[in-house]
Amino acid sequence: MSNFEVNAVARNDEGKGASRRLRREGLVPGIIYGGDKRKKPTSVSLPNNELIKLLADDAFYSSILTLKLDGKEEQVILKDLQRHPAKPVVLHADFLRVTKSNKITITVPVAFENFETSPASKAACKFAAEKNTVEVICLPANLPEKLVVDLAACDSDQVLHLSDITLPEGVEILSLRRGGDHDQGIGYVYAPRGNK
């Protein structure tokens, strides 16, 4: 699991005008909420250039982050992010506090591995991924950095579904909790034209 640290400062001024002033100073307005019911939501500001660097690592989106707020540390996940449509600027960031006893819902990446050793690959077939992230629910301690799909046994014309993902203990795919009708395709094997 990657260890990311986010530096933030509490802020008292709220509203559109205050947010615009922060952005002009190179800061991103944000909020921390959830977790222990006794803790109220906290408005924060973060340095935009630091946040942009952290966001460049894909693991940042599916990791538990250490948010340093005025000398105290809180465990959070990135819950929502608003970006400028044309500039490399984050407009707002939402962080959800995590506790050891409460499950979290988060999107994690899916990695497809070992296709080159599969019977389908040896038959000159190709693999196309349809889904590269999956929403999971788990306790923070069980959060995987990624879900791995082993393609070593894939055959020609095979379709892989969410249920084909081998999950670590204590991790559930949110869609599959709704029943078998929600077992979406995540990728398929196909023969390129002229290879049939």
Uncertain spans, ≥5 residues at pLDDT below 50?
none
DSSP helical segment count: 3
Shape: elongated
Name the structural class.
Answer: mainly beta
Instruction: Tell me how many strands there are.
Output: 13
At CATH level 2, the architecture of the largest domain is: Beta Barrel
CATH superfamily of the largest domain: Ribosomal Protein L25, Chain P
Radius of gyration: 21 Å
Main sheet makeup: 6 strands, mixed, barrel
Helix content: 10-25%
Bin the strand percentage.
35-45%
Top-tier CATH class of the largest domain: Mainly Beta
Q: Please write the string of helix (H) and strand (E) elements.
A: EHEEHEEEEHEEEEEE
User: Could you name the CATH topology of the largest domain?
Assistant: Ribosomal Protein L25, Chain P
Instruction: Give the CA-CA distance, first to last residue.
Output: 43 Å
Kindly give the count of domains: 2
The spatial strand order of the largest sheet comes to 1-3-2-6-5-4
Mean model confidence by pLDDT: 88
